[in-house]
Amino acid sequence: MVFFTAKKIKQISNLGDVLKKKRRELGMSLSQISKRTLIAERYLQLIEDEDWQRLPGEIYIKNFLKRYAMELGLDSDRVLMSYSDNGSAYETSIYSLQKTLPLAQSNFFNIPKLLRNSALILLVVLFVGYLGWQTNKIVTPPELSVYSPVDNLVTSESKIIIQGETEPEVEVTVNNISIPVNEGQFHEELDLQQGLNVLKITAQKKYSKQQVIYRKIMWKTNDISKY
């Protein structure tokens, strides 16, 4: 008799390769995974390639990884931990820099006047730049992904499901009607009108600009004329 034991992920040196290998072991394609998880196939490919810079953002990456790992039967917490560990070297370098600041400050007033003034000007420029960056961050439209429906959909159903994801504390509207958002996730059923329906889906923070996505839905009835 052959016994099988559950296999845990202890250390993941190459997260993308582990996910790809597990998917292939299960005999599943990216297209199949995409349909089951509602994650766009191109995002799944970027995850397996570990091309994090081309993915929508941090909250989306972690959400995608969690859903992908669960679909593959992997420990989602360990997968997320492995992803987070990739940034530890950067965090360590920042922490080391912060610890050296008091020593630098103790010698600051021994620097010649010209260099000291140059350093002060640089600090002012950096501060102003930081304020500009924070202001831009506030007014920048939030990220918005609409998984369902796809654009230019033709359907015989009179109702449609609007499903997608955005950032926390964002208001989402469909044709200027607000819909519920739970931790960045939204899922709402809407009635269609016969013919072409144009859905304007918007996401907006309190002071930000709007992020807008349009979806065109054609509702065609299947009525058969009787003669």
Q: How much helix, percentage-wise, in residues? A: 40-55%
Total count of strands: 8
Question: How many distinct folded domains?
Answer: 3
Query: Strand fraction band?
Result: 15-25%
CATH topology of the largest domain: Immunoglobulin-like
Strand order, largest beta sheet = 2-8-7-4-5
Assembly category: single chain
Main pleated-sheet profile:
5 strands, mixed
H and E order: HHHHHHHEEEEEEEE
- Mean pLDDT equals 80
Structural class of the secondary structure composition?
A: alpha+beta
Name given to the CATH homologous superfamily of the largest domain? Immunoglobulins
Give unreliable regions as ranges.
1-12, 87-106
CATH class of the largest domain reads Mainly Beta
Features:
alpha+beta, 434 Repressor (Amino-terminal Domain), 5-stranded mixed beta sheet, 3-stranded antiparallel beta sheet, 7 helices, 43% helix
Short structural description:
The protein contains seven helices and eight strands. By secondary structure, it is α+β, with helices and mostly antiparallel strands. The strands form two sheets. Strands 2-8-7-4-5 form a five-stranded mixed sheet, with no helix packed on it. A three-stranded antiparallel sheet has the order 1-3-6, with no helix packed on it.
